[in-house]
Amino acid sequence: MRKLVMLGAVAVLAFGAVGTASAALLNWEGTLLLELGELPPLGNTGGGVATVNNSAGGVPAHLTTLQLKGSRGGVKGTAMVPITDPAVQANAIASVRVLATMQTGTFAPISGGAASTTVLTKNIFPVSGLAKVCLLSTTCTNFLPLVLTQHTVMSGQKGVGIGGILTIGGGTNPIRISIEAAPWTIKTGTSIDEITTPMTPMGVKANINKTAMGFVHGTASNTGMTISSTANPSGVVQLISPMQVVTNLPTGSNAKIALFGYIGVHFIPEPGMLLLLGSGVAGLVLLGRHRMRK
Fold first, then answer.
1. 8 partner at 20 to 30 Å CA-CA among 27, 177, 201, 244?
2. How high is the pLDDT of residue 198?
């Protein structure tokens, strides 16, 4: 009996130490996606360590502040999608290739996800890298380059996850593409997609609103202001960046394409906690077997 009590005390102390050390830190895994028009999403997966709730208070708790740092992990990589639209292919565009890396940023105040009336006052999270509009071949030996984060003397920093207008092509190049970027939100965002529908005459375009929704989920995928466990393993956050693309494709008529950025964060248990839990269970099993032999 004494051994059992001692083992329980050691386990409690160990769990308490882990909880204290990770009071404002949560491991996460997730995705960074860019969705352009009707193309499949371009994205990658990754993970790291997030700082939650401004380093104040412990976890689990309701998530109010989320900070992601490039120095603590993140998502980066290259994704490519071929172009199959004949109208776009006619302009020599064969594929789109994006090399993107999440940087550092803070999101706050988070209070109830998309149903909240609170607007994020901290919502700048740059995505650096290079987007290539590949010409003639999917191998992308010839391409139009678009730097995702740019610095200018007049307006400072602009880009994906920040805001501002990004432009490639134009001038002597017959292709011109502009992106109106935007910061991140957990609310619903809207962008315009210009398409040809069966209900319109041949060649006539119709503008439709495309939407994407951010959210905050607690345990068991619940949402709302009453959640107290969002900042906890199994909590999920989705942030979106609604952007607008304007091009001179395919006929130079300032065609519009919807573009959405997505950041998905799923909080996961610490490896150390899983190891402690496994060791504790194994210890109790062995102790039980020992007592049974007696």
1. 27
2. 60
The encoded tokens of residue 255 equal 């065609």
Q: Tell which phi-psi region holds residue 191, choosing left (phi > 0), alpha (psi between -120 and 50) or beta.
A: beta
DSSP 199-245: TS-TT--EEEEEEEE-EEE-GGG--STT-S-SBSTT-EEEEEEEEEE
Report residue 152 as tokens: 């200018």
Residue 220 φ/ψ region, left for φ over 0, alpha for ψ in the -120 to 50 degree band, beta for the rest: left
Beta bridge partners of 242: 260
User: Residues for the chain: how many in total?
Assistant: 294
Residue 71's SS3 state is: strand
Alpha helices in 22-127, H assignment, sequence order: 86-89
Bridge partner list, 206: 195
**Interatomic CA distance for residues 61 and 230, integer angstroms:** 6
**Distance from chain centroid for Cα 23:** 23
Terminus-to-terminus CA distance in the chain, angstroms? 13
Predicted confidence at residue 101, as pLDDT, reads 96
Residue 121: count other Cβ atoms within 10 Å of its Cβ. 9
CA nearest neighbour of 119 among 35, 188, 42 = 188
268 to 20, 49, 231: CA distances (angstroms): 17, 10, 10
* Boundaries of every domain in the chain: 1-22+271-294, 26-269
DSSP notation for 187-208: SEEEEEEEE--TTS-TT--EEE
- Whether the CB-CB separation of 217 and 235 falls below 8 Å is answered with yes
Model pLDDT, residue 15: 39
Pairing of strands 25-36, 255-268: antiparallel
The answer to whether residues 1 and 29 touch, using CB atoms and an 8 Å cutoff, is no
Cα–Cα distance for residue pair 74/184, rounded to 1 Å: 16
d(CA 246, CA 139): 25
Pick out the chain residues at pLDDT < 50: 4-23, 223-226, 272-281, 284-287, 290
